[in-house]
Specification:
alpha/beta; FAD/NAD(P)-binding domain; eight-stranded mixed sheet; D-Amino Acid Oxidase, Chain A, domain 2; about 400 residues; 19 strands; six-stranded mixed sheet
């Protein structure tokens, strides 16, 4: 290992925190810089399939993860217009027996806090909040990062003060709108997909009795769909409703609130259970869905991208978080194999990792088409689902859920 054994990570999301733990366990010191003042508590649910949970199990976090999660019994797929069940896939015992790791759902903030606590307990990881990266210089000895102290709270610094960080390398885990990607690696900005994800948490006691509180349920319909599942020890039902965006202006606004009227109007003629479920709350938040093509450059010298910074994907395969965790595992493995030459490690990581990340990215795009079919295409889709055995359907996803680093 070279003289400078510190790696700087930009972004304390799922990708950055997981990478910090895995790489620190390879003998490196980690400085993790996050522009927010604390771990992000926004957002709602996240699904973690076995390809992700086995990585967290290897980190010794499975027991705590399971304590913060729920293992849904099934994935139930329904026809949006009528609520007719098209297919039911068992999850709890099936996933564990087939892949050796569970399928779990939880609040995204609970996962982030679990990872942060593990980082905080690690002697070789230093997480610093309120640090906004302003400039990066790459040189023969690695990288120099200039970061602005955003407000001085809990950072030991003064508002507006700029700090300099020296590292052997920089990992960009700063999300779909990554500054590391656009300003340093030279990638394209994230592009709008044309869809909005409307998200809400509903008190489980307010959920209509006809809606399962133990399964992940998917309703499919023309141009949109809805997914819901329980989180936080079944105290809440996490709901994600996908609709087309109404305008380019709406996409540009980023996260946005709604009183629910536009959402209710879109789903007004869907299954009565859905209409009743959506009206249990007016606290809806809209996330315009953006994506980053995975075929761009992920590496420039001693700088590398992971997670959404490299390949922000649509949520229609429930693999955004899992793919970020996979990235972290593969990057740590490449670093372990080339500890004295991190630029080579990053090239190795990109070469090995990009094909699978692209396959997952494309799966999400394909699922969007399948979920949002209308007319004859939807009829054919429903017949295929109804006539397919669980074994047939799971064989199609063996490559996804059965992955191990």
């Amino acid at each position: 290992m070279g003289k400078n054994s510190t790696i700087i990570i930009a972004g304390a999301g799922v990708a950055g925190l997981t990478a910090a733990l895995l790489i620190a366990n390879r003998g490196f010191k980690i400085t993790l810089l996050e522009k927010m003042k604390s771990i992000d508590s926004s957002g709602v649910g996240i699904q973690l399939s076995p390809n992700a949970t086995h990585v967290l199990a290897e980190l010794g976090l499975l027991e705590k993860l399971e304590a913060a999660s729920i293992a849904p019994k099934n994935i139930v797929i329904k026809k949006g217009s009528s609520g007719i069940v098209l297919s039911t896939f068992p999850l709890v015992n099936f996933m564990l027996e087939r892949y050796g790791a569970p399928y779990l759902v939880l609040h995204r903030a609970d996962l982030a806090n679990l990872l942060f606590d593990a980082c905080n307990d690690h002697p070789d990881i230093d997480v610093q909040f309120n640090r906004k990266i302003e400039d990066v210089a790459m040189h023969a000895n690695g990288v120099t990062v200039m970061a602005l102290n955003c407000n001085g709270q809990n950072t030991g610094g003064n508002p507006g003060q700029t700090s300099e960080y020296l590292g052997a390398a920089l990992i960009g885990a700063d999300g779909g709108h990554s500054k590391i990607r656009t300003a340093i690696v030279g990638g394209e900005p994230a592009k709008p997909s044309g869809d909005i994800a409307w998200r809400a948490l509903v008190d489980i006691n307010k959920v209509p009795k006809s809606i399962s509180k133990m399964d992940t349920t998917l309703w499919m319909g023309k141009s949109g769909h809805i997914v819901c599942y329980p989180i936080r020890k079944s105290r809440f039902l996490n709901i994600v409703a996908i609709t087309p965006s109404s305008s380019a202006t709406e996409i540009a606004r980023g996260r946005c609130k709604t009183d629910g009227e536009a959402l209710f109007n879109f789903f007004a003629k869907w299954d009565a259970d859905i209409v009743q479920l959506l009206k249990t709350t007016n606290e809806w938040h809209g996330w315009p869905l953006n994506q980053v093509e995975p075929n761009g450059n992920w590496v420039k010298g001693a700088t590398v991208l992971i997670g959404d910074a490299a390949h922000a994907m649509l949520p229609y395969a429930a693999q955004g978080g899992a793919a970020a965790i996979e990235d972290a595992a593969m990057l740590a493995k490449s670093i372990g194999a080339h500890a004295d030459d991190l630029p080579l490690a990053f090239i190795d990581y990109e070469k090995i990792r990009k094909p699978r990340a692209t396959q997952i990215w494309q799966l999400a795009r394909t699922n969007r088409k399948i979920y949002h079919m209308g007319g004859v295409a939807a009829v054919v889709r429903n017949i295929v689902l109804g006539n397919s055995s669980n074994d047939q359907l799971y064989k199609r996803f063996e490559w996804l859920y059965g992955w191990k680093c």
